[in-house]
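> call design_seq(struct)
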């Protein structure tokens, strides 16, 4: 199994980028994350989250069904080991510490980061999907994550800074770069 990961704070454009990658290569599978968080209104159609109770999550964790788990805020997230093993190429979002934990040999990692916290705040506000309190919580997390992602820039195969000047070009530029990994993606597809 080959794994493509996208790392960056909420609001940087990871979901949009994932959608475009899967349009380019429809055979790439995006495994759902099991989570104790309820979906936001803009996520309900996506199918990349399966909402379960904290008790269900704990039971699955006890059975060692998750390859990776994470806690964000008061919510738990888990990626099922079995679903990853069943697909030749998978795509998912990973926070930096999970990228460290994967130790996956067939990995292509992408960082998508905003030029500044102010720019990220503007993007989150424009989405209009969350209260100002939730946005401030996300900004607080981003203030901690961004310096670490930048500090670990060498972990990524592709590192893109999103700004007000280039955000409309980001997807095109990213996909152009991703075309260079087409042999990485397709090499496993035919086996």
């Amino acid at each position: 199994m080959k794994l493509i990961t996208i790392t960056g704070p909420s609001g940087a454009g990871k979901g949009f980028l994932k959608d475009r990658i899967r349009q380019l290569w429809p055979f790439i599978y995006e495994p759902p994350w099991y989570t104790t968080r309820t979906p936001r209104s803009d996520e309900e159609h996506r199918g990349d989250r399966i909402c379960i109770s904290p008790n269900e999550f704990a039971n699955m964790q006890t059975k060692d069904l998750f390859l990776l788990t994470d806690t964000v805020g008061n919510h738990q997230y888990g990626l099922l080991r079995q679903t990853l093993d069943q697909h030749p190429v998978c795509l998912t979002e990973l926070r930096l510490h999970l990228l460290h934990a994967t130790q996956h040999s067939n990995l292509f990692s992408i960082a998508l980061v905003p030029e500044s916290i102010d720019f990220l705040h503007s993007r989150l506000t424009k989405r209009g999907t969350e209260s100002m309190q939730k946005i401030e919580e996300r900004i607080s997390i981003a203030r901690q994550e961004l310096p670490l992602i930048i500090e670990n820039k060498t972990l990524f195969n592709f590192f893109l800074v999103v700004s007000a000047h280039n955000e409309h070009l980001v997807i095109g530029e990213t996909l152009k770069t991703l075309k260079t990994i087409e042999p990485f993606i397709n090499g496993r597809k035919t086996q």
